[in-house]
Amino acid sequence: MPESKPIPALLRAVRTRRPQLLQQLEQLVCAESPTDDKPAVDAAGTLTAGWFQPAGATLRRHRQKAFGDLLELRFPARGVPKSAPPVMLLGHLDTVWPAGTLKRMPFRLARSRAYGPGVLDMKAGVVMALHAMETLQATGMSHPPVIVLLNSEEEVGSPVSRPVTEKLAQGCRAVFVLEPAQGPQGAYKTARKGVGDYTLRVTGVAAHSGVDFAKGHSAVLELARLLLRVAEFTDLKTGLTVNPGVIRGGTRVNVVAAAAEADVDVRIARSRDAARIERMFRALRPTDRACTLTITGGLNRPPMERTPAIAQLFHQAKALAAGLGIALEEASTGGGSDGNFTAALGIPTLDGMGACGEGAHADHESIELDSLVPRTALLAAMIHNLSVGGSPR
Known about the structure:
Elements (H helix, E strand, L loop, with lengths): L5 H11 L1 H13 L7 H15 L5 E5 L7 E6 L11 E6 L15 E3 L2 E3 L3 H21 L6 E6 L10 H8 L4 E4 L10 E5 L1 E10 L3 E2 L10 H13 L9 E9 L5 E2 L2 E10 L4 H10 L9 E10 L6 H15 L7 E4 L5 H6 L4 E2 L6 E2 L7 E3 H17 L8
Parallel strand pairs: 3-6, 3-7, 7-16, 8-15
Antiparallel strand pairs: 1-2, 2-6, 4-5, 5-18, 9-13, 9-14, 10-12, 11-13, 17-18
Helix pairs in contact: 1-4, 1-10, 2-4, 4-10, 8-10
């Protein structure tokens, strides 16, 4: 069972840190860091590393060319053998918001909430990780080695950070993902759908729609026929959904379209459906033999499936949360995160351990201020718990 004695001490310690936590949250939100702006993401990373290193972390910066650098921050074990397997705190510094968003969405505190671009997804989670570790250091409580990995391009599928995440996670005892909690109840996430994207490109034969209509072979019509078949791939009973989200094609209204394409979003709840959906896409063929079809893409995030080890980890969190007055719930979600990668490796992973709030990726993005202190204390308690026999394996 989780140890209950540290809970009051952790809560008191985090409560004294609240002003600093809010100050650093404002600084990080104001350090705008859109994924496609490497200098901006690196500046946010430098700011963040400057907080973690005085707290006792050693820094390794994984240099990247196209995206911001990845930050690997390591805290040594306290009160347990140095060789103990570490716990990973996993997050990202990039946001979906373009530079200059602060002019119309400034950081502000209002009605017990903090607003601003990226405040929920997921700069609050980064600051919570910092203060959870500083609280453990200040109170002298034991904890295993801790790896804080902050990626720079999660919002576009983690194309360069995935190998680093998977390599570091291999030796970890558990992974705590600092993404926002789920829904108004602030549930931890014990399952996520896998995510994929496919692009269907059709090449037809152009012709004048009035003079040579019969000589044309419309890529637009052929794509429409294909998308009707793609829509039939959806299987709600198994959690498999297929959504043609963007269509492009044609040049002018009086031209039989020579080219058309569609971007299709795919979500799967079960890893065994990955091969099935791949086969269905690759089996597509044009009805009009004068048209050609090219298919690119595939699954880029495996599903995070709820395993017994993940369930056990959640039940430990639920018991600790009760001592903080939190009625913690669990949830599954159709969205993906870097936690999908670690869970697919068999590493017990809890997601949604960041802030409670609403409006991720929306103009009203915000967090609940009253939840920051107890949720940060809960994160610290979970890290400490792994040093006192709370093994998820």
